[in-house]
Structures are given as C-alpha cells and as structure tokens.
Specification:
Radius of gyration: 14 Å
Structural class: mainly beta
Shape: globular
Order of helices and strands: EEEEEEEEEEE
Number of helices: 0
Distance between the termini: 39 Å
Number of strands: 11
Strand content: over 45%
Length: about 120
Amino acid sequence: QVHLVESGGGPSQPGGPLRLSCVFPGSTSSLIARGWNRQPPGSQREFVASISSGGRINYADSAKGRFTISRDTAKNTMYLQIDNLKPEDTAVYSCYANPLAAWMSTYWGQGTHVTVSS
C-alpha cells in the first residue's frame, strides 16, 4: 500500500509563511492528480488545492490568494505554500494522489498538524 509522506507542519504565528511538503514514494507518471485537503478542529475535511498531471491547478475559494500549490517532479514532491497565516488555517493538512488507473484507490498521507496562534 502506498503512503504519502507529509512534512512542514507545526506551530506558527499569524502573518507568517508556512510550506508543507508531500513526497510520493514512486514515479508520479502513474498519477493523474495530486492535492491537499485539510480538517479544522471539530469540522469536516475540506478541499484546499489540487494540481493535475498536466499542470492544471484548482483552489478552494477559501484558499485563493494566500495558498500556492506547486510540485517538483524530479523530487516527486508537492508543496503547499501558505502566506499570511491566520488562526483559521489551523487544521490537519493531508495530501492525496489519484492514480491514473481509475480502478485504484486514492493514496493518502498521514496528515500534518498546522497550528496558528500568537
């Protein structure tokens, strides 16, 4: 079973930047899309951003303007840059990857905690 590996979470102060990383343990040529979700405390998981194999990017309305998704294909790594952190960004951020083969399940990471407070 494939598990993605996230890093970069932790306590942060409002107004600062934060970059999360997600490594896919294999060739990303087997993927059709990758992305990030988050689950704030006491809330349901929500979509944040995604990037397709062709480079098409989508953001949730709540993520437009301060969030930037990117990838480094050579490193099999995807990033989520969050600028001007706000307390409401506090959540468990999880990355996912959708295989090209439609019959295969989505791969998930274990999640990384982001806590924004002063």
